[in-house]
UniProtKB/TrEMBL annotation:
<comment type="similarity">
    <text>Belongs to the TMEM39 family.</text>
</comment>
<dbReference type="Pfam" id="PF10271">
    <property type="entry name" value="Tmp39"/>
</dbReference>
<protein>
    <submittedName>
        <fullName>Transmembrane protein 39A-A</fullName>
    </submittedName>
</protein>
<feature type="transmembrane region" description="Helical">
    <location>
        <begin position="34"/>
        <end position="55"/>
    </location>
</feature>
<keyword id="KW-0472">Membrane</keyword>
<dbReference type="InterPro" id="IPR019397">
    <property type="entry name" value="Uncharacterised_TMEM39"/>
</dbReference>
<dbReference type="GO" id="GO:0016020">
    <property type="term" value="C:membrane"/>
</dbReference>
<keyword id="KW-0812">Transmembrane</keyword>
<keyword id="KW-1133">Transmembrane helix</keyword>
Length: 117
């Protein structure tokens, strides 16, 4: 019974006017789709570059290696192009939709959006 009395007292204190004022949260910036996707392409490309650099350092910079040249020719460029294409596809889609949105009339916009997808 004491617990319920304690709980009732706590609820009364919470309902009183002596509660703390609300804390306002900072303003959240809402960037556009093109800005967000562009930043994601830059971030993903840079992280891919760092991963390739890590692989290069861990595999080819062996302690007893006598090679001083970078073996860039061993990197598969088709894989790099595929990775960049996967990173850029949403950014390109946002650019195309933005261009069509600016150029086409409003009443054709729904049809054009379906056509782009």
């Amino acid at each position: 019974m004491e617990f319920f009395n304690f709980l009732a007292d706590c609820l009364k204190k919470m309902k009183s006017d002596d509660t703390l004022p609300r804390v306002t949260s900072p303003r959240m910036y809402n960037d556009g789709n093109i800005t967000f996707e562009g930043l994601m392409v830059v971030f993903a490309s840079f992280s891919t570059y760092l991963q390739y650099l890590n692989i290069y350092r861990s595999v080819w910079w062996l302690p007893n290696s006598n090679y001083t040249l970078w073996k860039i020719h061993l990197i598969d460029y088709q894989v790099v192009i595929f990775i960049l294409a996967m990173h850029c596809r949403r950014f390109i889609y946002c650019l195309i939709t933005w261009v069509f949105h600016m150029l086409c009339p409003q009443n054709y916009w729904k049809f054009i959006r379906l056509f782009i997808r």
